[in-house]
Amino acid sequence: MKASMSRIYGKTRGSTPLVRALLRTAHGIGSRARQLVLLCVLIIAVLPVWAFAADDDFGSAAIVGMGGAYAALPSEAATIWFNPALSSLSLTFARGCLVTRDLYQLQALEERTGSLVFHIGRGLSLGGGFSQFGQPGFYTESHAVLTAAKNVGRNWAVGAGLHYDRVEFGDNVKAYAGTSLDLGLASRPVPQIVASAVVRRIGLERLYETNSPPAIVELSAAWDGPSITLAGIWSKSSGEKSRFGIGQSLLVARDLPLGAGLVFISGLRFDPIRYSLGARITGGGGSIDYVYQNHPDLGGTHAFGISFRFPGP
Fold it and tell me: Going from the N-terminus, what domains does the chain have, and what CATH number goes with each?
C-alpha cells in the first residue's frame, strides 16, 4: 500500500526530477509549508498515473524488515494483507499486530496499521485489519481487509481476502474508492519450509471513475532454520516489471532477562533498490520490532511494531 508515494513515484519517470526536488524541499521547511509541498507532490506524481497497486513496504515492521518476504512470518497477523491463506498455517487461537511508520521522516506521512486473526476451529481462521496513512484534512488513504482461510489437508491452506480502499485529498475530495479480492494458497510441506502463492487486488468494483488497480501475481517462500530464516518474494502486475525482494532474520541471543530473545532482521528490495535493517525482541508470546528502511530518493522510514499471540482459552 502507499502506492502514491513509493510505487507511483517509481512509475512517473517524466516527472521524477520535479518530484524529487519537491520532496527534498519538504524536509527543510515549516510544517504548514511542508504540507503544501507534499500536496503538490501528490497531485503531480499520483493523479496522472493512479494505479493503486498494493505496496510491499507495509503490513508490519518485521515484514518490511524482511524485504517484504512475508512467507518468513506465517504466524504474523499482518500476513492477511498479502496472502490470507498463511493465517491457517498457524493454529494459534488469536494473534495481532500493531505498527506505526513515519514515512520518509515526514510527519504528514504517518501510517497506523492494525491486524487481528482468530482461529475458530476445524482449521478455519478469520482475520481483519485497518490502516490509515497521511493526515486528515490534507491527504489520507484508508484501507480495510476481511479474510477467511481454511486448512485443506495436512500441509495446505487456502484463503480469500476482501479489501476496501479509499483515498481523499483535503476534506472529502475523493480521488479513489473501491473494493478488490485476494485469493491465496499456502503450504508447509516440512516444518522448515513455507511457500505462498497469491493473486492480489482482483478488481471487484470501482466506486469512483478511476482506473481499476491491476491484479498482482505473487510468489514467496522461506526456509526457517534453528537460528536463521531466509526468504524471498517475486511479484508481477500488468504493465510493470517483475519485482523481487529477499530477507533474513538471525537469532543472536535467546537467554536475555525475562526469557527474551533478540533477532536481527535485514532485507533488500529492488526497483528501486531499498535496504532495511532492524531488530525484534521476542518473549511472552509476543514481540517488539523496530526497522529502518531507506529509499534512494525519498529518504528513510522508521517502523515500530508490536505483535502478540494467545495460544488459547
Answer: 54-310 (2.40.160.60)
